[in-house]
Amino acid sequence: MRILITAGPTREYLDDVRYLSNASSGKMGYALSEAAVDAGHSVTLVSGPVDLPPPKGVTLVPVETTEEMKLACLANLTAADAVIAAAAVCDYKPAVRVSGKLKKTGAPVTVEMIETDDVLAEIGGRKQSQWVVGFALEAENARERGLQKLRAKNCNWIVVNGPAAIASDDNDVELIGADAQTIARFRGSKRDIARDLIALLGEHRQSSG
Amino acid sequence: MRILITAGPTREYLDDVRYLSNASSGKMGYALSEAAVDAGHSVTLVSGPVDLPPPKGVTLVPVETTEEMKLACLANLTAADAVIAAAAVCDYKPAVRVSGKLKKTGAPVTVEMIETDDVLAEIGGRKQSQWVVGFALEAENARERGLQKLRAKNCNWIVVNGPAAIASDDNDVELIGADAQTIARFRGSKRDIARDLIALLGEHRQSSG
């Protein structure tokens, strides 16, 4: 199977130095990439800036902004059998990027933020036979909001986790299908969860293909 | 000599997940810490979140926000003979930090940003006999703005560098004194620059003490 995986955060710049981001470490997406290669799949990893070496055998596409991630994903979508969107993209960006470095004046600065392109919704909207697995990081009403996200973005599966997942080596996730049924619960190291999720994806595609 | 060194970026949160930061890697401050320990100095390293192991022999004080960095520096200031402020702190922060995760609505979001505490100015304002070395990262008119910064923050020396320094292994800096004279120019790896700067600081303190 050819799997397109996204990982890490993206960055959205206010000026040439300051940016908006999040503490996503990329560990989940990199663990998924490694597990997928180990299981014999072909992996394209579209990754925001992280401090992890790319797993052996993946095709790495490094990106910085959400728009770059979207373009890299769409360019690799048709060649993929499945997509796992584990990246934590910046979903807002400053409406204006100041050239150089914003100077301090002592006064408050008002920054207008607009939504970035929705990478997962673009993938879901264009998918043909690809099996699309999204990730939802929710602080509250996680299951309900995860399911809303699955539907809004036309995913096949959604992996729901909480803020404790960020930058952690461990995770505690629920995998939900489009019929709102819980398919599995995984708890433990991101490596173990990645192996289980890739195995489940492989079984599913085998039985449905 | 007991040297207090700051390194890395700080983070200022919009909500529990999103933050404002910069790409400072901490390499300059960590290289300075290592060079200082190698030269026989006692080092306290106040560091924002970076992906570097603390150099052997330093006392590491990890911080996340600018306020935490300020408090850690002031707590360690009186015990220091010199301060080298190599951190690239966030100088703006959202006026309000939203609890949980800001939900997307489709509409633009206006974020009011206020200045954070000025760590270097606080150090400069409270210094007694400490020799204070600041860093200025300037996109344009670097020398002039660096000198303004030296004066505004009551530093003894200022190291002026450009945006190319961010996250790079190399740097190209000018060291300027309070009399506006160029003391030295260093170009090369951050490790080499760190060694030269620490040596110069050691000589200076010996001749003036």
Describe this structure in words.
2 copies of one chain form a homodimer. Chain A is globular and about 60 Å long. Chain A has helices at residues 27-38, 66-77, 119-126, 142-152, 190-208, and strands spanning 2-7, 12-13, 18-22, 42-47, 59-62, 82-85, 92-94, 109-115, 131-137, 157-161, 170-177, 182-189. The N and C termini of chain A lie close together (11 Å). The first copy, chain A, is α/β, with parallel strands linked by helices and 209 residues long. In chain A, strand 9, helix 4 and strand 10 form a beta-alpha-beta unit. Strand 8 of chain A pairs antiparallel with strand 8 of chain B, so a sheet runs across the interface.
Structural class of chain A: alpha/beta
Distance between the ends of chain A: 11 Å
Oligomer: homodimer
Q: Helix fraction of chain A? A: 25-40%
Strand order within the widest sheet of chain A? 5-4-1-6-9-10-11-12
Spans of chain A with pLDDT under 50 lasting ≥5 residues?
none
- Give the radius of gyration of chain A: 17 Å
Strand element count of chain A = 12
* Average pLDDT of chain A: 94
Instruction: Using a beta-carbon cutoff below 8 angstroms, give the protein chain pair with the largest interface and the number of residues from each chain.
Output: A-B, 36 and 36 residues
Compressed to H and E, one letter per element, the order of chain A equals EEEHEEHEEEHEHEEEH
How much of the residues of chain A is beta strand, in percent? 25-35%
How many helices of chain A in DSSP terms?
Answer: 5
Largest sheet of chain A: 8 strands, mixed
Coarse morphology of chain A = globular
